[in-house]
TrEMBL record:
Origin species: Syntrophobotulus glycolicus (strain DSM 8271 / FlGlyR)
EC number: 1.11.1.6
Ranges of biased composition (kind: Basic and acidic residues): 10-25
The reaction(s) this protein catalyses: 2 H2O2 = O2 + 2 H2O
Family as reported in the entry's similarity comment: Belongs to the catalase family. HPII subfamily.
PROSITE patterns membership: CATALASE_1 (PS00437), CATALASE_2 (PS00438), CATALASE_3 (PS51402)
Keyword list, A-Z: Heme, Hydrogen peroxide, Iron, Metal-binding, Oxidoreductase, Peroxidase
Main function: Decomposes hydrogen peroxide into water and oxygen; serves to protect cells from the toxic effects of hydrogen peroxide.
Name recorded for this polypeptide: Catalase
Binding site for heme: R75, R115, F164, R361, Y365, R372
Single GO cellular component term: cytosol
Active site per UniProt: H78, N151
Length: 703
């Protein structure tokens, strides 16, 4: 077997293991759980056709009993999530920094399972709410399962895990009436914030566009806590982990996200499911930031403080591999719901730091699975099984699967020659990093954790004008939803310590007083890596609606579809109904979508081709005009050729477009609106449209 064959097999290893558990019912007889074949499942056994059901109907009892017990407790946080399988491929050997086996050989592949999630909402809540997104990755390595249980925001709300229950109680629906669902826009959350100023930095991120991602495929992931990498010589370095999406980091707008919650509550899961089914596999590069142990105190933030990031300009992210998600789950419950992550799942070559948030997390995750998955054997559930062999003396408990023969289940023993026996470090045994620990037992916080505002200010300073506007808008909505007037004022006063101009704008939006005291900013510094304006921009996998009625210009549509395909984008035809229409040359077309079930919210851009008959119908259709208006207000790319531009003139676009009758055969671009007159069949128009599409949004015209 060649080198690459081995890796190919490695990549498939988890899928092969899962294969053994898959139940294929195709063409099979219906049976009970005891494999008894059944003649019917429609009627219960009765004493006469109109008589009572008999207790002896074991099929009825089994069916109903199983149904009655189908639900398990949802996760106490991150209840709503979506998972996918894939693999991680290493670009370059990390042997200088770590002995982790999956980070040694360039080109090696490790199977992974990733679960994305929101934090606050319950299992049935909407995808596009303003919230932190979970980004949890399980690597099935040859040395055991390794989990990076991260978020799409590089820092956290609190510095010590002991405050986690308080934070979550404050942010979840209020306990007296269980209102509101899946949102931070309520009194208890902001009450916690103003009483815990360490939240300032994370609240800035949560009010930014990062908290309303466009897609799971377009958001970063961060391990958040500081870990250690340990090499074969036992040299340790502090490390932070990063996932960087190859499609760039992109977000929705607040208004758009809120409307999407109604139009398609499954927007994010549908997006990633469809992308994987279509072969548009989500890809994320894996990066590490490393700091030598002897530089621990060289920075103006504490490396152990989880409310601080390590600015990428100061400590660059070294890209070392790529993760590709290439397979959807076969069964949501079996895989996505039952997967159990834990930051304590590490492998030789990786270790913890003393970050007090991380230290608490190491306990919480295993503990919560006991309630959620019903006992200590949850690691035997197929999705949680390592691909590496498991041998120990743990026995019994609810739902035990493994059958251990023989009388020995203890160590040391002579009856089984001490099997299974510990192995030395050189043979792969895990040895904890021998950090020196010396201190008094104190319930206290380090002085070096006291600066709560500098990095919140750094974040604000790093935002583009549009991003700042969105942050102000988010505060306006969130704090505007708070009932307690005093609380609102305290938010304004607290965020004056981040940026006075921000506080003034929040105050104006929510009817509070401007901050009493103008605190000078603690830093003028900025970090370009924090702004989404500086991200990768590409048209790949973007969705474009082509609005059509009978009489459209066939050639224009054909050219646009070809251009979109060449750019890796997806064009969909949308008409007033799903009935067949025809182009002005008589070519029949069955629209992909209709204006009632679809809408601009579900697309990145819209194109209206020429053809006077078709445009005259569109102009009369309220849904078609709203489509353009919505795309316009959400700063999306809009294209129109020839008579297609007349539809734009019948919408809010008219206010800033010049008289389109003067448009030339060369494409003209007005803040993301591309128009052409007489040149719709020419390449430059389609190319200009795709270039604008790649820009994601045109913030200058958003309102
Ligand atoms: Fe947590 C789930 C991420 C702090 C306690 N957390 C959970 C998930 C993610 C994170 C992505 C969902 C995993 C999945 O998809 O199943 N959590 C984080 C990050 C944190 C963080 C990035 C800050 C650095 N978490 C944190 C603290 C505690 C917890 C401080 C408690 C002390 N988290 C949990 C939990 C959950 C969980 C209660 C709920 C479901 C689960 O673990 O499996 O144990």
């Amino acid at each position: 077997m060649s080198f690459s064959d081995t890796f190919q097999e490695n990549d498939q290893k988890k899928m092969k293991q899962m294969e053994a558990y898959r139940s294929d019912d195709d063409g099979q007889a219906l049976t009970t759980d005891n494999a008894l074949k059944l003649t019917s499942t429609d009627d219960s056994l009765k004493a006469g056709e109109r008589g009572p059901t008999l207790l002896e109907d074991f099929h009825f009892r089994e069916k109903i009993t199983h149904f009655d017990h189908e639900r398990i407790p949802e996760r106490v946080v991150h209840a709503r999530g979506f998972g996918a399988h894939g693999y991680f491929e290493l670009y370059e050997s990390m042997s200088e920094y770590t002995k982790a086996d999956f980070l040694q050989v360039p080109g090696s592949k490790t199977p992974v399972f990733v679960r994305f999630s929101t934090v606050v909402g319950s299992r049935g809540s909407a995808d596009t709410v303003r919230d932190v997104r979970g980004f949890a990755t399980k690597f099935y390595t040859e040395s055991g399962n390794y989990d990076i249980v991260g978020n799409n925001i590089p820092i956290f709300f609190i510095q010590d895990a002991i405050k986690f229950p308080d934070l979550i109680h404050a942010v979840k629906p209020e306990p007296n009436n269980e209102i509101p669902q899946a949102t931070t826009a309520h009194d208890t959350f902001w009450d916690f914030v103003v009483n815990a100023p360490e939240t300032a930095h994370m609240v800035m991120w949560a009010m930014s566009d990062r908290a309303i991602p466009k897609s799971f495929r377009m958001m970063e992931g961060f391990g958040v806590n500081t870990f250690r990498l340990i090499n074969a010589q036992d040299k340790a370095r502090f490390v932070k982990f990063h996932w960087k999406p190859l499609l760039g980091v992109h977000s929705l707008m607040r208004d758009e996200a809120q409307k999407l919650s109604g139009k398609d509550p499954d927007y994010h899961r549908r997006d990633i499911w469809d992308a994987i089914e279509q072969g548009n596999y989500p890809e994320y590069e894996f990066g590490v930031q490393m700091i030598e142990e002897d530089q621990e105190f060289d920075f103006d933030f504490d490396l152990l403080d989880p409310t601080k990031l390590w600015p990428e300009e100061l400590i660059p992210v070294k890209i070392i591999g790529k993760m590709t998600l290439n397979k959807n789950v076969d069964n949501f419950f079996a895989e996505t719901e039952q997967v159990a992550f834990c930051p304590a799942n590490i492998v030789p070559g990786i270790d913890f730091s003393n970050d007090p948030l991380l230290q608490g997390r190491l306990f919480s995750y295993e503990d919560t699975q006991l309630t959620r998955l019903g006992g200590p054997n949850f690691r035997e559930i197929p999705i949680n099984r390592p691909v590496a062999p498991v041998h120990n003396n743990q026995r019994d408990g609810m739902h035990r699967m493994a059958i251990h023969p023989g009388p020995v289940s203890y160590f040391p023993n002579s009856l089984a020659q001490n099997s299974p026996s510990p192995v030395p470090e050189e043979e792969g045994g895990f040895a904890h990093y021998a950090q020196r620990i010396d201190g008094h037992a104190v319930r206290a916080r380090s002085e070096s954790f006291r600066d709560h505002f500098s990095q919140a200010t750094l974040f604000w300073n790093s935002m583009s004008a549009a991003e700042k506007e969105h942050i102000v808008d988010a505060f306006h909505f969130e704090v505007g939803s708070v009932k307690d007037v005093n609380l609102k004022q305290r938010v304004v006063d607290m965020f004056a310590s981040v940026a006075p101009e921000l506080a003034v704008q929040i105050a104006a939006g929510i009817g509070a007083k401007p901050p009493a005291q103008a605190v000078p900013k603690s830093t003028q510094a900025s970090s370009p890596a924090l702004s989404q304006e500086n991200t990768i921009k590409t048209a790949r996998t973007r969705k474009v609606a082509i609005l059509l009625e009978s009489g459209f210009c066939t050639v224009s549509v054909r050219n646009m579809l070809a251009e979109l395909k060449a750019a890796g984008a997806v064009g969909e035809t949308v008409s007033s109904s799903l009935s067949e229409i025809s182009g002005k040359d008589g070519t029949p077309l069955k629209p992909d979508k209709d204006l009632t079930t679809s809408g601009a919210l579900l697309y990145d851009a819209v194109y209206v081709p020429g053809g006077s008959d078709h445009v005259n119908v569109l102009k009369q259709n309220h849904n078609a005009r709203s489509f353009i208006n919505e795309a316009l207000h959400h700063a999306k790319t809009i294209g129109a050729s020839d008579e297609g531009a007349e539809l734009l003139q019948a919408t809010d676009a008219a206010a800033f477009l010049p008289d389109l009758r003067d448009a030339q055969a060369a494409p003209q671009i007005f803040q993301g609106v591309v128009v052409v007159n007489g040149g719709s069949t020419l390449q430059p128009f389609c190319t200009a449209f795709v270039d604008q599409l790649a820009m994601h949004r045109h913030w200058s015209r958003a309102n």
